[in-house]
Fold this protein.
Amino acid sequence: MSGMLTDKVVAVTGAGRGVGREIALLCAREGAALVVNDLGTSGEGEGADLSPAEETVNDIRAAGGRAVVNGASVADPKGAASIIEDAVRNFGRIDAVVNNAGILRDRIWHKLSHEDWAAVIDVHLNGCFNVSKAATPYFREQGSGSFIHFTSTSGLIGNFGQANYSAAKLGIVGLSQSIALDMARAGVRSNCIAPFAWSRMTASIPATTPEEIARVERMKTMSADKIAPLVAFLASDASKEVTNQIFGVRKNEIFLFSKPRPIRSMQKGEGWTPQAIAEELLPAFLPSFARPDERSGDVFGYDPI
């Protein structure tokens, strides 16, 4: 290993299993000290079990690394603050925050309850806010720091039965963008990653049609460890010029996503009427419309290498 994170302290949420665990293991191998946070809930956010986080920490220590367990909920502001406090208390500083923790409560829109909406927003969007907010005073004081937030193509592009998750994940992009702009003068950067990886969460994706079954089979070839190198890079000083970006990782591919920008414009000197919009603007804009039924699987329908 190159030791790109030597003397760095990294906090990873949801690091007991899957993508988060692989991130923690690689960051440790690259020289970082880790706060391994995981409440240890079910995929829908129920229950608690510290053993996954403890296993990750034990594996890091067995390999000669440094790590501590944190079992707080990122949805609780005090719990989120304890993640950063554990980093500073045990290792003296905090250099990078990886907001990876998440749950799923997939429901078709007309069956989505307020409880399912709030639970997913709390963990994903509010969790990112809570942990990032807690780290911010330390980042500002030391004049450096890296926020790495996990978004999803479910938010960037769209998916069925995930209104809560999609809204949270696109909200994280907006949050990251604002953090990057507000914190740039303090030397702090903020970026997003949309991961493609087979994990406990993606294993819950329903597959009833041949196309959906094929998509799931493709996902099974995308191991969680493929996400970790980009995270380690973004946590390192080598990424000091990288901020306010949205990346994707799909097996051995790394993507850079565009942000929403105007793609067509039409001006009418005397102003618009509803009828003029229907008769003039709509025919001009229609060829540039995004497909109304497009979702992540349509954009990334080919087999990964």
In short: Strands lie at 9-13, 33-37, 66-70, 96-99, 145-150, 188-196, 246-250, 253-256. The chain has one domain: 9-256.
